[in-house]
Every structure is written in structure tokens, then in C-alpha cells.
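Make up an example, fold above all:
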Amino acid sequence: MEDHRLPKIVLYGELATGCHKRSAPKKRHKDSLKQYLTLGHVDYHQWSTLASNWNTWRHTIHDATASFENTRRIILKEKRQHRKNHSLPILPKETFRCAFCDQTCLSCIGLFSHKHACSKHG
């Protein structure tokens, strides 16, 4: 393809705006395309041949999107399970009770702060 053609400019030229990692080269549209195709488990070495046949490309992209969404949902579900199954902090064996209101505190300093603020203290 000739250099002045729009598809070649878009795929192989540098992006005019956007961000890139510090001390990393500027990304091209093709670099972003490779990243997204990899996330969808599409072989990015053959994307141009896949894209030449509209039906094959459409089917491939549809499957890649479904695969990406399923993977994303599984990861989110695992993260949620990890948060929910995170063990609760182990309570200390010794607890401290307020002599005025019978409030239970988990530490001596907590009891001291509570006694300072306790409304029944006087």
C-alpha cells in the first residue's frame, strides 16, 4: 500500500494525542490494536487476513468480545469472593469493660478513650 493512503497512515503513523509510559516510544494505532486483540485472544499476526473477509472478521471479533467479557466477569467474581472470604480480624483474648455503661472495648487505649467520652461517667 502506498504511504499516502489513509489506512496506512492510521495503522502505522504515530498518534497525535494520547499518553504513553514514561521513556516509552509513542504508540501507534496498530500497537493499541495489538493490545486489544491480545486481550480478546485473537492472533494479531493474522488480523489483516482475518479482516479481509468481513464475515470471518465479524465472527472472530464477536467471539473475542464474548471471551474478553467472560474472562473479565470471572476475574471480578474471584476478586469479590476474595474480599468476602477475607478472614475477619482475630479478636484479642482480653477485653476491657467500662465500669459505668458496661461497654466492651478491645484494647486498653480504647477503654481509656471510651471512658473519656462516656456520657454516664459523670
Q: What stands out?
A: Residues 89-122 form one domain. The first helix runs from residue 6 to 12. Helices lie at 6-12, 29-39, 47-52, 54-85, 108-117.
